[in-house]
Design a protein that fits this description.
- With 422 residues, the protein is α/β, with parallel strands linked by helices.
- The protein is built from 17 helices and twelve strands.
- α8 packs across α9 (205-219).
- The chain starts with a helix and ends with a helix.
């Protein structure tokens, strides 16, 4: 690649904002550091450089103490990765990091969540696309899709929530037969070959990443994701209105639009009134439904309070499952567990966990071990337990446990909903 091409890449900006590493979550600078470099491998322009872990050095006796490092030096020492100026702000690194140790200043989970809620409140259908795909699309169509820096910047949980919100975005009219009702569809607009010419997808990794995330969301039960390659497919997502109906005519023949306005104005307005009434009914039904909806899986108030660092992605997943508890059967989450018969309470796993999701408790604790049979209870004075609400299954505890008492297990969606949140 020539110097000119390098400058061109640096000038690209996909709109996700600056990447901010979160050292407290990064596995490279954990108490027991690992060689994780998923984010660096996923970066299409090599803007992320993993830093080697440098342990604290003991000062030799008799030598003068070294000057205290500045705040900047301390921060750089704790960073697991360094972001260079080559970053094109695509946001892919934030979705691939399993520990949520990277975030961007513009595209973040709460921002997308807010956009999805607004679409649902307006009964305006649901569509996602990337900024590159929407470039040159007519504004009346482009505004129907939520524009993202890159679809690969979405995690599986975000796809799952978006698909579930899409079900709610289109509701049946009152008096409509159940068999005539179609569930809301999450439309994903990507023109043919749009990814092949994209600088983010130089090696095909970006396309692979979002397809893998969608596939996992579908495995969890998101069966209403539809890929469209024509911008016209974004039209009439929530149902026909007067302007969209006239737009169809105008696209074929503008003179026919003039004829329709002159000869059938009354009929058009009447039709539009019916369509607008239907949309109003959808919005009213949605508001009524949300007021009447009760969580089918109540958290167990007798369960221990969470003590680890909470995951924003797991929060989105929980939100989606609370809206549709029927989907819990397809959800399984990787989580750390403890073989209490083996655990010696040494605390290695507690120190190694980057999310503080492990804790030592007394073996006499009724709250944690009271329901276990006598032969399954801890034999030492202390044993380590896991905060399942916060654990992301990174396996850091498994790697440091000297007696193989830490294990990785699957947490069902039903049990996940029962976990206490506060």
């Amino acid at each position: 690649m020539s110097d000119t091409e390098d400058i061109e890449v640096i000038q690209l900006d996909f709109g996700a904002g600056n990447v901010a590493p979160l050292p407290s979550r990064c596995l490279r600078v954990a108490h027991e550091p690992t060689d994780c470099d998923i984010c660096a491998q996923a970066c299409p322009v090599g803007a992320l450089t993993p830093k080697p872990f440098l342990p604290e050095e003991d000062e030799p006796e008799g030598e003068e103490p070294k000057p205290k490092p500045s705040a900047k030096e301390l921060l750089e020492k704790k960073l697991g990765v360094v972001v260079s100026e080559d970053c094109i702000h695509c946001g892919i690194c934030t979705s691939v990091c399993p520990m949520e140790a990277l975030s961007t200043t513009k595209h973040h989970l709460k921002g997308l969540e807010k956009q999805l809620k607004e679409r649902v409140a307006k009964a305006d259908g649901m569509a996602l696309s990337c900024a590159r795909s929407l470039f040159g699309v007519a504004p009346r169509l482009a505004e129907r899709a939520i524009s993202l820096p890159c679809l690969a910047a979405l995690s599986t949980e975000e796809w799952f929530l978006a698909a579930e919100q899409a079900r709610e975005a289109i509701l049946p009219d009152e008096g409509m037969a159940d068999e005539a009702v179609e569930p809301g569809v999450l439309k994903v607009y990507l023109p043919d070959l749009i990814c092949e010419g994209c600088p983010v997808n130089i090696c095909g990794d970006a396309e692979e990443a979002y397809l893998a995330a969608i596939s996992q969301a579908e495995a969890w039960g998101a069966d209403n994701i539809e890929l469209i390659n024509e911008a016209e497919g974004l039209r009439n997502t929530p149902g026909g209105t007067l302007m969209s109906a006239l737009g169809d005519v105008a696209a074929d023949d503008k003179r026919e639009l003039v004829s329709q306005l002159a000869n059938g104005l009354k009929r058009s307005w009447q039709s539009a009134g019916n369509d607008l009434t239907r949309e109003k009914n959808r919005a009213e039904q949605l508001a009524k439904k949300r007021k009447q909806t009760k969580k089918t899986q109540q958290p167990n108030l007798n369960a221990p309070r969470p003590f680890g660092k909470k995951s924003q992605r797991r929060r989105l997943l929980r939100l989606a499952l609370e809206q549709n508890a029927d989907l819990v059967e397809g959800v399984d989450l990787l989580c750390a567990g403890t073989d209490t018969e083996r655990c010696t309470g040494c605390g290695n796993c507690v120190e190694a966990c980057p999310l503080n999701a492990r804790r030592r408790v007394s073996s006499n604790s009724v709250l944690y071990f009271g329901k276990l049979p006598e032969d399954k209870r801890p034999k030492d004075t202390q044993a380590a337990i896991t905060d399942e609400l916060c654990c992301l299954g990174c396996s850091a505890c498994v790697q440091v446990c000297p007696v193989d008492a830490c294990t990785l297990t699957w947490l069902s969606g039903e049990d996940f909903l029962k976990l206490r949140q506060s």
